[in-house]
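Section handout 9: paired folding examples.
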Amino acid sequence: MRISTNTIYQLSSSQMTALQEKISQTSQQASTGKKVMTPQDDPVGSAKLLEAKQAISINDQYAVNRNALKYTIGIANVALNGVQDVMQSMNEQIVSLGNGTLSNSNRQSIALTMQSQLDHLVSLSKTKAAPQLNLFGIGFPITIGVGFLMLSINMPYWSTPIINSLDMGIQMIRQATATLAS
């Protein structure tokens, strides 16, 4: 078999071009810190990356929902503590009305105090966690009930993405540990 100078030149040239492309790709990966630049570089890795991003997005939404619920529960707790305080004060006022030595002006003063406390109770009953979310109105319990119903319906479908994201995290930790150990 005859090998000409032209053939040797073409083989060398194509090998150098291929090596330059690999160097360019490796340089780009090193500069960006990303192994997968395009989905065609690693289709399986790209699919796993997409699943991980979706899992992170779901977890971020859970965090936002948890914070909103903590805020709402905090507001409800403050309102209910206020109701408890007002009711205790009203109870004390009612007990003091049973005292036979009170004058009419004292009774009238207690009545005015109780009226203002009743007004305060009404204002506490209108406590809102958001402009459209009255905590003690009929809409809030229905909204919470529908929310829990939707969670119970959708929960079985969330198990697979959650398990996959946990498995991916464990695999990434194992790979990093294996890389550091070698």
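Moving on to protein 2 of 2.
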Amino acid sequence: MKRFLCALILFSLGAVGARGETDLTSATIVVYNRATPDSIALAYFYAKAREIPFDHLVGLECSNEEEISREEYNQTIAEPLRKAFRDRNWWTLPKETDSHATVRASKIHFVALIRGIPLKIRATTPSPGEQVDNNQISSDTRASVDSELSVLGIPSTPLGGPGNNPYFQSFKSITEIENLPLLLVCRLDAPTPEIVKRMITDAVETEKSGLWGRAYVDGAQQTAAGLGEGDLWLKNTVRDLRRVGIPTVYDTESALFPLGFPMNDCILYYGWYAGTITGPFTDPNFAFARGAVAVHIHSFSASTLRAADANWVGPLLSKGAAASLGNVYEPYLQLTAQIDLFNDRLIHGFTFAESAYMSTRVVSWMGVAVGDPLYRPYANWLQLDPKKENQPKSAWRGYHEFAFKNSTLQPAEYLTRARAAASRTDNGPMIEDLGLVQKENGDYAGAISHLQQARTLYSSADDILRTVLEQVDALRKSGNKKAALALVRATERLVPDASTTALLRKLEEQLAPPTPTPRAGL
């Protein structure tokens, strides 16, 4: 907790946010497929949006397929890029050594792969002399192109299995670390070129005002061996989000957020563990808030990025997210990005690329980070501007500033002051979040009171419905099924949406199962 608060204070004074755009753009290259017109156009679109020098664009002649062989990767991607790094003096190499020697230093730290660059490398048979272990992980020669390219300057990485990530758990900008040739590789890719353009524009525009809204975190209560760690990541994420005043809806049930559940104003989504997009995300009218970051933990979540209805990453981007993390093959949970670390670094102002690699234990493996590598949604949000202290604040900003200024209070005193501040300013999101904290802590009476108060402050139908559903859950858990059922039935009459009506009817059946009709005697 002490480290977290110190980091916030330093950040508010500009410690993390001091890096200029020039530092980032001069350390970035853009890699595209010369054989694909859309890839060329997107590369120049991104470079212009981020003011990346055009001599930092690298065109490759490679396949347009998502999956390629190891031989294709080496011949059409890895070797041409090594040559570009050497020819353009981006690498500091040892003297009088072979071209595959480990790089001493690199002027380039960020790599943006543009749609059209292959996504993944299929399994290969090791060549004579190449050694791989016989266990299941270390003998797996498959990888994402992105993760494999991250170790382009570290050729000692074994062919099979993952390699240790030297940047894992760091809390320092990649541009400030000397003699670390690791490349932070992200990709600007999605089901259509238009979505990629929107991702780029959303990232740039969101940085100007910050990413404001509500987070939704979907736990899965996984109890199988080795899976409980994923739920712990999500629990830690909820704690950290609330510490900085981001209202967070946290579902601790085994089922995912159901179809019909209102997920409006969604800026952050973290969840698991379904094979493909489900629940509210399948609603044709659902859309993330601009600049949103959305991640669903699952093997193969990014096995393709060209379908808007397959797995998770492609669909989440199609629904308006600006960035996501995923896996192209089976990575095993402990070797995926640790969501709590990723979120922690993101809200401390690091770039999307830095946050992704700081949270990933291994490289040369299965992961991909899809989005603008330079995107910093929280680069400036912690810097409180004294000139704006007396100006009207949004509910989102008001909650954040309260949390920031009162972060050292004990929980009981914090709750008392928070409720007073939220009531004084009619801050519905803040009051709702206080109610959710109480519900999660088993204080159902306090939760019901807060959620009822929040509901009276809302005018949006989605906000009202969500607080109703949360209040019903608190009433049910408190043992008052009668009041919960009455609230469901009263709300059902006011909701015209078909999916929401179906959700309320399902709740009604759970609270008051229909009485079986006795069979007539023979």
